[in-house]
Specification:
Strand content of chain A: 5-15%
Number of strands of chain A: 17
Distance between the termini of chain B: 56 Å
Structural class of chain A: alpha/beta
Largest interface: A-B, 30 and 33 residues
Shape of chain B: globular
Strand content of chain B: 25-35%
Oligomer: heterodimer
Distance between the termini of chain A: 85 Å
Largest sheet of chain A: 7 strands, mixed
Largest sheet of chain B: 5 strands, mixed
Number of helices of chain B: 4
Shape of chain A: rod-shaped
Number of helices of chain A: 28
Radius of gyration of chain B: 17 Å
Helix content of chain B: 25-40%
Radius of gyration of chain A: 66 Å
Chain lengths: 862, 162
């Protein structure tokens, strides 16, 4: 990073450097020019010139002197030898001097001036003229001496003039040279000054830049230190890897988490050190994507995965990774959080929830079982009371019996309420989908409550608005809602009337929007209480409440049912006082009216005498029902179990079979199936189930087995009579008619359809062998489950449970399958042994049932 | 004036006929006197000097026009031949010019005592018969005022200063 800083000089400095370079070049040029000038100054010998010019005059004078001396000597006596040697030498010297002037480079300037040139010309002429004289023989020369003198003297002003001109010219030249030198010196000095200035500026800027860079570097170091301490202080492990997936950073938390020191891991492969073998494939894929390769590149990801410590232990982590791109370099930073604690906590919460759910389920089961257990004796109680009532003529006795019957009914209602709440609580309400005539249901409900209303002198009215309201709904539940609302209305109203209004109008998609209104002229409900009355166990503190009995669950159940059907319920004050309950519901419109819906109303219909086969293991119930039927004029044949029932149904043609569902050995469902397997007409006899199980799933099972109808215990004479009255014109209808209908068959010991399909694919023998194998397996493995539990070998327990689940699941043995998978789950979660025991006991009972059913039913299916 | 100029022209014509002959004759009798510490003067004629090792170079001078070929004996050879030792020489010209020359100047590639200019003997009128010439073109060191003053022509005597 710092490297980048240094290399990036500011533009100003680049400019300055260029200027310095340029100035330096200029200075060098100026300097070399200056040096050259100085050299010229040294090489052009001005002094020499001055000397030469001065010497010219000297040489001329000396020549004149020589001429004069020669003339004196010539005039004297001694004439031999003639004194011309010196004269000639002096002339040669003068000649040489003038020649130099006219040739020498240093006198160029002199010659270039017009005056100088002319003078030199004249001097050369003088030389030539003189030479002609000097070079003559001595004798001739002697004679010409006066001429020579004259010529030489005449030359004097020229020589003088040349000398002066030379001084003038060379002085000017020297001035020029000095000026030029000075100019160049100034230039050089200016260049040097500029250079110095520029260099100083550059230096200053560089220093400033340096200081800035230093400060930046310090900042970077500080921020690096901060980052490092942040990384060190982080509770999350921070691991950075480079492009080669090697570890490039490893903080303190990472050291603690993984058990390696930073020095040990730096440069090592992250996959080999920190990723468990099982996760390396996904690890590699993730890296590829983070590095921007592959089909689906990503920048960051947060996943839960596993990591491995130095000691080889694996632990769950939350991994947050992000790729970091600096220029073209890619690295990946990973924040790793050990979530062992969170996982454990989450598991604890899950277990707590599971336990709570199981406890809740156990409660629900308990309630359901209890209500069932209460229903059976109640059935006997009320049935017997009915018989006593029918056979008693003493009015006082009859009244007592009636009170006993009413108490029994109230008790039954309470049991039903509790059962309903239990079902609703566990969100297990199953809704039938029958064609239901709302008006018929309402009439039926009003008929039921009419007894009470008449007793209190209340009017009951039914108003129907809008179109025919036949919808696909659950008639039992709607009846329950209306019964609750009208029952309450009658209960709390002392005088006036209770009105029921049904309004139906079509909405989109072939549906009908229904509004059910129940109005009374009672005391009404205070506004403050209206929001509360639909809650559980709410009983308003009023005189009426104390007068009436109730669990306080009625409206709560009503609300739950309405909500389960997707509707809403509310209460407001009716015009003129009293309460107005409004239920809004939307149903699909039905094609036909339900036959069943209004049937219960035929209470006092007299039926023809029927030949009835009663299959019931419970002697009390058998007695009760037989008496009821006989009292109505029917003929009853009893069978104490399923086998006997089937045998009798095979040998005789009955008008109707009343079949108890829960029987040891072959139960009602299986017996029904067996009968349905008989050739006509025995196989097509009308079969009506008797059961304490009101659950839709159960009902569906009965229908599937071939029952035509179902009566819920305790059996009432009226209901029994109604069923039998329909039997007189019996022809077997296409559909099962029951209180409720459902398709769910999860709780079946086996799924008959599945079994039939399996049976259809193989021979009888093969099917038999298959069944034998499964039953053998169940008999063999279930005790093994027990011993695995006793030796606390939960692994084997889970494995065996799983194996069995597969085997029995084939036959749709819902109960057993559910029990087995519960056991498997419990074993895997290492639940306490009490819980495992409970699961196992469910498995045992379900297994027994399944084995029984399989062994008993398979011959029929095959 | 005009008649004298005409006469001058005539005389100039005569100078080429006669003057040349007389001059070459007059020149041959001039020699170079070399005086050492012993005060004994040695006179080197042109022929004597020609017998010494010949040094020759081409150079321009500030007193002549163009580049000329100078032939002569190097000052070092001459001093050796004359068996001269000393620090300073004094060179004297016919025109009474004189200059001191340090013997340190007498090096190989240094000044010569020239006797030929472009292969011809030099007359007194043409700075002859001897001329101490430095190889000015060879080095800027030889193009200084000092060297120019030492370049003495019409040389007649070299003596060693005590």
């Amino acid at each position: 990073m710092t490297g980048h800083f240094c290399c990036r000089l500011p533009a100003l400095q680049v400019l300055l450097a260029a200027m310095i370079l340029a100035t330096a070049i200029v200075s060098i040029l100026v300097g070399s020019r200056l040096a050259e000038g100085l050299r010229d100054l040294r090489q052009v010998p001005q002094d020499n010139v001055q000397w030469a010019l001065a010497q010219l005059e000297v040489d001329h004078v000396r020549f004149l002197n020589a001429v004069l001396r020669a003339r004196e000597r010539a005039a004297s006596v001694d004439r031999t030898p003639l004194p011309f040697k010196e004269l000639r030498i002096r002339f040669d010297i003068l000649y040489s001097r003038i020649s130099t002037l006219s040739e020498g480079q240093v006198f160029e300037e002199l010659r270039a001036s017009p005056d100088g040139f002319a003078t030199i010309e004249r001097l050369q002429e003088f030389l030539a003229e003189t030479a002609t004289i000097v070079d003559r023989d001595d004798g001739v020369l002697l004679g010409l001496l006066p001429d020579l003198l004259q010529i030489s003297e005449e030359a004097f002003p020229h020589i003088r003039g040349l000398s002066l001109l030379g001084i003038e010219l060379f002085a000017a030249a020297a001035d020029r040279q000095r000026a030029e030198l000075e100019r160049q010196l100034i230039l050089a000095a200016g260049g040097a000054a500029t250079l110095v200035f520029l260099i100083l500026t550059f230096l200053m800027l560089t220093l400033r830049e340096h200081r800035l860079a230093e400060r930046r570097r310090e900042e970077i170091v500080r921020s690096q230190a901060r980052l490092n301490s942040v990384a060190r202080a982080s509770f999350d492990a921070i691991v950075v890897i480079d492009r080669a997936a090697k570890i490039a950073e490893f903080n303190k938390a990472a050291e603690d988490m993984f058990g390696y020191t930073k020095g040990e891991v730096m440069g090592q492969s992250i996959a080999e050190l920190l990723v468990p073998a099982s996760r390396r494939t996904s690890h590699r894929a993730r890296l590829l994507r983070l590095f921007g390769e592959g089909d689906d590149p990503i920048d960051a990801e947060r996943v839960e995965t596993l990591a491995v410590r130095r000691d080889g232990t694996e632990f769950p982590i939350e991994l947050s990774v992000r790729s970091i791109r600096v220029d073209t370099d890619v690295s990946i930073v990973a924040f790793v959080r050990d979530i062992t604690q969170q996982k454990a906590a989450a598991r604890a919460v899950e277990e707590a929830r599971d336990r709570a759910v199981m406890a809740d389920q156990a409660k629900s089961r308990f309630v359901a079982v209890m209500s069932h257990e209460m229903r059976t004796p109640l059935n006997g109680l009320v049935g017997m009371l009915d018989l006593i009532h029918a056979g008693t003529t003493d009015p006082a006795q009859r009244e007592r019996v009636e009170i006993a019957i009413t108490s029994g009914e109230i008790l039954k209602q309470h049991v039903d309420d509790v059962l309903d709440i239990a079902q609703l609580e566990s969100n297990r309400m199953e809704l039938a989908d029958h064609p239901t005539d709302m008006v018929a249901v309402a009439e039926q409900v009003l008929n039921v409550v009419r007894v009470d209303a008449d007793r209190k002198g209340l009017r009951l009215t039914l108003t129907v608005n809008g179109m025919a309201s036949v919808v696909c709904a659950d008639p039992h539940r709607i009846r329950q809602v209306l019964t609750n609302l009208t029952g309450n209305a009658v209960k709390f109203t002392d005088e006036g009337e209770v009105g029921v209004e049904i309004e139906a109008r079509p909405v989109a998609g072939g549906e009908l929007a229904l509004v059910l209104r129940v109005r009374d002229t009672g005391p009404g409900i205070p506004e403050a209480e209206r929001g509360r009355i639909f809650d559980d166990f709410v009983m308003l503190e009023s005189d009426y409440d104390r007068r009436t009995s109730g669990s306080g669950l009625g409206l709560a159940i009503t609300r739950r049912i309405v909500e389960a059907m997707g509707g809403a319920i509310s209460v407001e004050e009716a015009t003129g006082g009293g309460s107005l309950f409004i239920v809004t519901l939307t149903f699909r419109q039905a094609e036909i009216a339900s036959e069943w819906s209004a049937d219960d109303t035929a209470l006092d219909q007299i039926s023809d005498s029927c030949d009835v086969l009663l299959v019931e293991d419970n002697a009390i119930n058998r007695e009760v029902v037989r008496r009821m039927l006989e009292s109505a004029g029917h003929t009853v044949t009893e069978a104490v179990n399923g086998f006997e029932g089937v045998r009798l149904a095979t040998t005789r043609q009955f008008d109707i079979v009343l079949m108890d569902v829960s029987m040891p050995g072959m139960d009602g469902v299986e017996a029904t199936k067996a009968i349905r397997g008989l050739p006509a007409p025995h196989g097509s006899v009308r079969i009506v189930g008797l059961t304490a199980h009101a659950l839709p799933a159960e009902q569906a099972r009965f229908a599937e087995a071939g029952m035509d109808e179902c009566l819920v215990k305790p059996i009432r004479l009226s209901a029994l009579t109604a069923v039998l009255s329909r039997t007189s014109a019996w022809s077997r209808p296409g559909g099962f008619v029951g209180d409720v209908n459902a398709t769910d068959s999860e709780d079946d010991p086996i799924n008959v359809e599945t079994m039939s399909e399996i049976a259809a694919t193989m021979s009888e023998d093969e099917f038999g062998r298959l069944i034998a194998r499964i039953t053998d397996e169940l008999r063999e493995v279930v005790p093994q489950l027990q011993s695995a539990l006793q030796t606390d070998d939960l692994g084997s327990l889970a494995g065996l449970a799983h194996r069995l689940t597969g085997s029995v699941g084939l036959f749709g043995a819902g109960d057993l399958t559910a029990a087995l998978s519960d056991l498997e789950t419990a074993a895997k979660l290492e639940k306490p042994s009490v819980e495992l025991e409970a699961c196992l006991s469910r498995v045992r009972s379900a297994s027994e049932l399944t084995v029984t059913v399989l062994e008993e039913i398979s011959p029929h299916l095959a | 004036m005009i008649p004298r100029y005409l006469a001058t022209m005539l005389m100039l014509g005569a100078i080429f006929v006669f003057g040349g002959l007389r001059q070459s004759h007059a020149q041959s009798d001039m020699g170079l006197s070399v005086v050492g510490h012993s005060s004994a003067s040695q006179v080197f004629s042109l022929a004597d000097l020609q017998r010494l090792p010949v040094t020759e170079f081409e150079t321009s001078t500030i007193w002549t026009k163009g580049v000329h070929r100078f032939t002569g004996v190097s000052l070092a050879d001459l001093l050796a031949a004359a068996d001269i030792e000393g620090d300073t020489l004094k060179a004297i010209a016919a025109n009474d010019y004189s200059v001191e020359i340090p013997t340190s100047d007498a090096v190989s590639g240094g000044p010569i005592v020239a006797y030929f200019l472009d292969g011809q003997p030099m007359s007194l009128r043409n700075k002859g018969p001897f001329w101490i010439v430095y190889p000015y073109d060879r080095s800027a060191d030889y193009r200084s005022e000092t060297i120019y003053t030492r370049s003495i022509w019409q040389l007649v005597q070299i003596r060693v200063l005590p």
